[in-house]
Amino acid sequence: MREDLRGGTAVAVRLAGGAPLRDALVVAGPGDWLVLDAGVREVAWYRSQLLPEWEHTAPLPAELTHLSESRLALALCHRDGRIREAAVRRSARYPALLPLIVIRCADWAEPVRERARKLLREALDAGTAVDLAPLILRVGRRDRGTFGIELLEEALSRAPRGRLAALFAHPDRTVRRFGYRLAVEHRLLCPTELAHAAARDQDTVVQDLCATAALTSLLDEEGAYDEVLTPLLTARSPRTRSAGVTALRRAGQPKQVEPFLVDCSALVRACARYVVRQHGGDPASWYRERCAAPDDPGLPPGAVIGLAECGNRADAGLLWPLLAHPAAGVRARAVAGLRTLDLADTERLRPLLDDPAPAVVRETTAALLPSAKQLPVDWLLERTGPERPRHVRVAAFRLLDTHGGVAALRAAVRLLEDPDVKLRAWAGQSVRHWHSSAEVRRGDAEVGELLDRIRHLFSDHVLRRRKREAGLDS
Q1: pTM for the whole structure
Q2: How many angstroms separate the CA atoms of 186 and 180, rounded?
Q3: Which range marks the domain in which residue 349 is found?
Q4: Which of 10, 239, 363, 447 has its CA 20 to 30 A from that of 405?
Q5: Looking at the domain assignment, is residue 100 inside a domain?
């Protein structure tokens, strides 16, 4: 039985013992009510001995009038539909049971479902709707669950705007999405508020929804561009910034686009180039002008990769000198740019594997992976030694692992004793997945020696199979 279902059965037992609902069930989220609903039936089917006074003398519908709130909560979750329906009828005077009524609105039994829907419609006001929104949306994923969502939208569309603030700030992104969709559909927020929401929220769906709605609303509201664009253009999310950058074209402010040509996000840079072109500019020339001075300490890294994104292979002449730039960001982007242009020369990039900046080494590794077999094995193995910086050891191991064969096994075995925990774990995974290939000389004694050193990582059967694959005696 799953851990959460055991929690539901434990609550059911406490309720059957007479514990008040508020004490028996600590609600941290909508899932707690759903677990209770399932937990009651779990007890009923498989653990009836725990509740003899409840199961063996199960109340008939007519007897539910005198049940306490706790027992009525159990009845609302009972496996017998007649008992559930009668419990719904008696629950109107217990507001604390409304969450279970929400669940019963999607009940498989039509009489239970219809009675619960009638009660929920009567009880749901703006305040209750906000409180129950997370559970209603969760139940809405079930078959027959759309009624609750429609009723929720109906109740909240008439609510004062201040009531929706709790939905906008809710930790559950599903609730925030619903709240903002409702606000956009019913025009409950102004463009500036929508722009700030797009800039503030961490959910990409909310960001897109609010940014699009804010910019669309500007078509009807002249003169509000600055108030809307400022939060969009300064947002942390690249998607939100890109929406603001694209809107600069319609706002007729091409000069404000230039800083975004060197943005750290490829999406934002692409949108900025689009706006520049729409106003007759040439982004490639703009990038070339800035990359023409390889010693410029103020060169933005975004200008380097931007040139590769919209330039051509001839622009490699501007990128190669930047591999010696004093700024690590520029060196890393230069490597990335050469890879983008498919001009990653193995011999010219190889020295950058010893670069002190991890970002440069990561980009260099990515550029050299397709040609890993062209790199000297001993030279790479030397860089897996513990005296090397961690980012250099990681890069060398990635390249050796891609190289495959005995070189990959040799590197992995060596790194099983690396001082870094993660690198040891990666090496262990590599060893377990290593198989002999056509490049491995059959009967190679070194392979046998390496496999014997790591025999503790395999069962006897797997070790024998690995040795047979390598042409060694089992």
Answers
A1: 0.80
A2: 10
A3: 282-374
A4: 363
A5: no
